[in-house]
Write a structure and sequence with these properties.
single chain, about 425 residues, alpha+beta, 8-stranded mixed β-sheet, about 15% strand
């Protein structure tokens, strides 16, 4: 990731990274029980500063390196001499701390052009499957809730592969409008958001979200859609959602017929996805975009509702970017605690990179590997025997450090670059 080799670099480089973190990050670490300074002196702990495990784990996650490489790099950069097992133990318990840092860094992102969307603060939700290397199936599922304008997470939750997508995983607030795809279109989820005085906008799910008229009769949505005969034609109908334990929730269905070519593509995609299980009703529905929202008509017109839902694709792009660039889907193993730490650390590094991606925060290109080479890379000048011997001793010491850590990556690197 962008500049992440600097997390094990010089103290100056790390200070640039550290300034992107919340000012109270040490206090947050202490609240999570991660203050090595409080370990009794008689136990002889090698690590007495939370800075060491923080930098080491962020380096491992940011570079996707092995535990051995992380431990060897920490030793080569003169931070500490710990085993790969120690790095693994740090990972197992640092997840909640990283999650708190992400939440703290994204909590201030409240700016939004509220007048464009009737004063609502728009939050989009989705989930993404991630797999560890070599896995045959899903390792974990990451549930995102992101603010639309900044695309920064307001909440992230990691579950195993059985964790379903639901609004109930998040924390809606009054004045917010929560958007989701079909997976979030169900009566319990709609009722949960409304109970927080927030509003809902979801893609209509014919199987998961039954809707009713004012008399409590089930709406025949397909019959209503048949009235839309022209591509681009928009219609809306009042609709109520019935959820257990609460009064019927009033909303409206908003629909538009797709152009012929887009409808054909949608039907072809549906046939590929569902195969022989596809139904005639599903193929008919593929010719339309239908959404359900609890936002009143006097606040957002039907056209504005459809325009807003079209922006939901931004979260898809955000997740794909995190997976392709940040390596969100490169999980280290299948332990829930280390997977949680890994993903939260990735999200934290993304936030750090966002803040560093400006001209006044640019990092000089001087990372760990360049420092190793500066330390003992070229043959010493042969002006005197003393200078030649000094250079030879420095090269030998650097090589021995890597070999002592039993790390093949650093050892091979140094054998090739520092040969006598």
């Amino acid at each position: 990731m962008l500049g992440m080799e600097t997390t094990l670099g010089s103290s100056g480089d790390w200070q640039i990274v550290e300034t992107q973190l919340p000012a109270n990050w040490r206090d947050m670490a202490e609240r999570h029980g991660l203050d090595p300074a409080k370990v009794p002196a008689q136990l002889g702990a090698k690590v007495t500063d939370i800075l060491v495990p923080l930098r080491t784990v962020l380096y491992r996650v940011g570079t996707n390196c092995s535990l051995k490489t992380a431990a060897a790099s920490a030793f080569a950069s003169e931070m500490t001499d710990v085993s790969p097992v120690a790095v693994h133990l740090w990972e197992r318990k640092m997840g909640p701390f990283f999650a708190s840092l992400v939440a703290e860094m994204t909590g201030s992102e409240r700016a939004f052009a509220a007048d464009r969307w009737a004063g609502f603060d728009i939050v989009v939700v989705d989930a993404s499957v991630v797999c560890r290397p070599g896995a045959q199936g899903t390792t974990a599922r990451v549930h995102f809730a992101l603010r639309l304008t900044t695309l920064r997470p307001v909440h992230v939750e990691v579950t195993d592969d059985t964790g379903g997508e639901s609004f109930r995983r998040f924390y809606p607030q009054a004045g917010e409008l929560w958007m989701g795809d079909r997976a979030y279109a169900n009566p319990p989820g709609v009722a949960f958001v409304k109970s927080s005085d927030a509003e809902v906008l979801v893609r209509y799910n014919r199987g998961g979200l039954p809707v009713y008229d004012i008399e409590g009769e089930r709406l025949d949505v397909l019959a209503k859609l048949s009235r839309l005969r022209k591509p681009g034609q928009v219609r809306e109908w009042a609709a109520w959602v019935h959820a257990d334990g609460c009064e019927p929730i009033r909303g409206r269905l908003v629909a538009v017929r797709l152009p012929a070519d887009k409808a054909k593509q949608a039907r072809e995609r549906l046939r590929r996805e569902q195969g022989s299980q596809v139904t005639a009703e599903s193929l008919t529905m593929a010719s339309f975009v239908v959404v359900f929202t609890t936002v009143p008509k006097d606040k957002l017109s039907a056209e504005r509702v459809l325009e807003l839902y079209g922006l939901r694709w931004q979260i898809e792009l955000h997740i794909k970017r995190d997976k392709s660039i940040a390596g969100l889907d490169r999980l280290p193993n299948q332990r829930p605690d280390t997977v949680y730490t890994w993903i939260c650390a990735k999200l934290l590094l993304v936030q750090i990179a966002h803040k560093m991606a400006s001209s006044h925060m640019a990092i000089p290109p001087r990372g760990l590997w360049s420092r190793l080479l500066d330390y003992s890379s070229t043959r010493p000048c042969r002006q005197t025997k003393d200078s030649e011997q000094e250079g030879s001793d420095r090269r030998r010491e650097s090589r021995q450090r890597a070999l002592a850590c039993d790390d093949p990556h650093l050892a091979d690197h140094l054998r090739g670059s520092l040969a006598y």
